[in-house]
Amino acid sequence: VAASRTRSRRTKLGRLAAAVSVLALAACSGPASLQRVEFRPPVVDVTASDSPSPSPTPSPSASPTRSPASPPRSIADYLAMLPTFPPAPAPIAVDLPHAAGRAAWISRIPTSQPVAFLTIDDGAVKSPAAIALMRAAGIPVTLFLTTNIISDNKPYFAQLQDLGAVIEDHTISHPELINLDYAHQRNELCHSADLLGSWYGRRPVIFRPPYGDKNDDTLRAAWDCGLKAGFFWKETVDKGKVRYQTALHKVQPGDIILMHFRPAFADDFVAALKAIKDAGLTPALLEDYVLIN
Ligand SMILES: [Zn+2]
């Protein structure tokens, strides 16, 4: 059954692979602070040889008759690259510390269970390839979505929700929140939570501030909006490459991994799952591990 489903998807998805590689959308433009910043979407030069390969080094055995640029991978190629995982353990929620009247602030769930958490932000590039990959992978993910960025195609994310993705808050307009006063921060967080709740039937309970930047007003505003915890990350994935925030260079139990809906979604998604697999971990749902008292 799986094979025939894969084949039936292939004709549609083959065309989409090329489309995905040329899509670019500047969702994360804004003031940059180094190191802690959420990665901006790359400026894609569609005339350049855009290699979707996550491999950092070219194959030495490449045929000399082959074009210098590797042909783009098809969706079937990416589907074949998806690692498989053992079932995630029964989740044990973790009581996250937070100050009174403030949301918790977390970059890693303090758990010893062999799990990691994949989070996908913004919602700029809405590729059918992402739906195919998430359907095939069958893993839980949390989507931090910006309402202005997704409002042109809300059903796209409903499809992902139907596949098990949980939609959480990433503001209305993706501002640098720390440049806003409490009232404006609160509006960005509350209004987007309300919209997402009305669009998808579930009001978000956690959030990620754009660029991962927050101050005390952010945590107060989030709490006042019913958002119990904000999430930073331990790894980011961009253009098929996993970047670690710690010197361990290995995903640790409880780590939160950040990627985006970008042109290289397929490369990033496969790279993230391989990094989780290589660490001996299994993707689990972030919301299952969050307990706030
Ligand atoms: Zn973002």
Structure description:
The protein has 293 residues and is α/β, with parallel strands linked by helices. It starts with a helix and ends with a strand. Helix 7 (216-224) links the parallel strand 6 and strand 7 (229-231). Strands 3, 4, 5, 8, 9, 10 and 11 form a seven-stranded mixed sheet that branches. A three-stranded parallel sheet has the order 2-7-6, covered by helices on one side. Strands 1-12 form a two-stranded parallel sheet. It is globular, with a radius of gyration of 19 Å. 32% of the residues lie in helices and 15% in strands. Bound molecules: zinc ion (ZN). Zinc ion binds at residues 28, 38, 121-122, 170, 174, 210. Zinc ion binds next to strand 3.
Distance between the termini: 45 Å
Instruction: Indicate the radius of gyration in whole angstroms.
Output: 19 Å
Oligomer: single chain
Total count of helical runs of at least 4 residues = 8
Mind summarizing the main beta sheet? 7 strands, mixed
Helix content: 25-40%
Strand fraction band? Answer: 5-15%
